[in-house]
Amino acid sequence: MVDNHSYSFFGQKVGLIIQSSSKNEPFIFFRLIKSKNDGSWEKPSSGEGKVIKFSLEEIVWIIRVLEKEVNSWSSYHTFKDKNTQISFKWENGDNKKLWIHIGKYSKVLEYAQFKILEMLLKHILKEKIEFATTPNVSKKSDSGLFSNTFVKEEVITNLEHINKIENYQSNNENPSKIKKVNGSIKGETDKALLIQFDNGSEVWIPKSTIHSGFDNTMNAIQSFTIDSWILKKNKVLS
C-alpha cells in the first residue's frame, strides 16, 4: 500500500490531475490546467490553473455519480469571498461521457478514463477511511505533494479549493450562522436553486449560500447546509 497517488487525464485542451499526498489526510486534490494558444500549458508556478480540495464526503458524492447512482452532483467552494462552482454530470443523461466543471475549467472523460477515475477514487477512499480517520495518528507532512514543483506554488498560493463549511468547523465559528435543513429541488439556474422546504415554502436560494453538496435530481428529498440569514429572510426558519 502506497502513501500517495497521482494520475493525469490529458486531452488537447484541458488536463486533469488527481493527487493524494498522504493516506493519512482526509482529502484529495483535483487540478485542472489549460493549453494556451501557443501550444504551451498553464504553469502552476505562475499562479495558473485551478486546484480544488475535496473532502471524504465529497469523494463519496463523486463516486455516486461515477457509479451512476445519480445523474449529477454540484457544489460550491468558497474562500475569501471567491466562489467556485463545481459539477460532475453525465452528458445529456448519457452515461458514456462524464463532464467535470470546476470554475471556468471543463473536462470530459470517456469510458476508460471515468472507469479509471472511479477505481482510483474508491481505492483512495478505502485507504483514507482506514488511516485518515484514526485518532492520535502522527500525520505525515505534505512533502509528497509539495516536492513536486508542478504543484507546489499552486497549492500554497491558490487556495480557492477550501470551502466555507470547512472554515466554520476549523475556526470554531458560531454554528448558528449555518443551518442544516431538508428539502427538494424544484428548479435551478446557474446561480440559484428553487428549493421546497419541509414547511411547504418554495424559495430561490443562491448557490453561494449553500455549503453542502447536492443532488441535482428534481424532487429528490435531501439535506442542505445553508446560511441561516437567507433561511430567516425567507421565513424558512423562525
Which helices and strands, and how do they pair?
Elements: E1 5-10, E2 14-20, E3 27-34, E4 50-55, H1 56-66, E5 72-79, E6 82-90, E7 98-102, E8 105-109, H2 111-131, H3 143-146, H4 149-157, H5 164-170, E9 178-188, E10 192-197, E11 202-206, E12 214-215, E13 221-227, H6 228-233
Antiparallel strand pairs: 1-2, 2-3, 3-4, 5-6, 5-12, 6-7, 7-8, 9-10, 9-13, 10-11
Characterise this structure.
There is one protein chain. The chain is built from 6 helices and 13 strands. It is globular and about 50 Å long. Mean pLDDT is about 80; it is low at about 135-175. The chain has 2 domains: about 5-170, Transcriptional Co-activator pc4, Chain A (Roll), CATH 2.30.31; about 175-235, Beta Barrel (OB fold (Dihydrolipoamide Acetyltransferase, E2P)). The chain has about 240 residues and is of the alpha+beta class. It has a 5-stranded antiparallel beta sheet with strand order 8-7-6-5-12. The protein has helices at about 55-65, 110-130, 145, 150-155, 165-170, 230-235; strands at about 5-10, 15-20, 25-35, 50-55, 70-80, 80-90, 100, 105-110, 180-190, 190-195, 200-205, 215, 220-225.
- Indicate the mean pLDDT: 81
- How much helicity do the residues have? 10-25%
Distance between the termini: 51 Å
Task: Please state the second-level CATH architecture of the largest domain.
Answer: Roll
Question: In DSSP terms, counting alpha (H) and pi (I) runs of 4 or more, how many helices?
Answer: 6
Number of strands: 13
| Shape, principal axes of CA atoms | globular
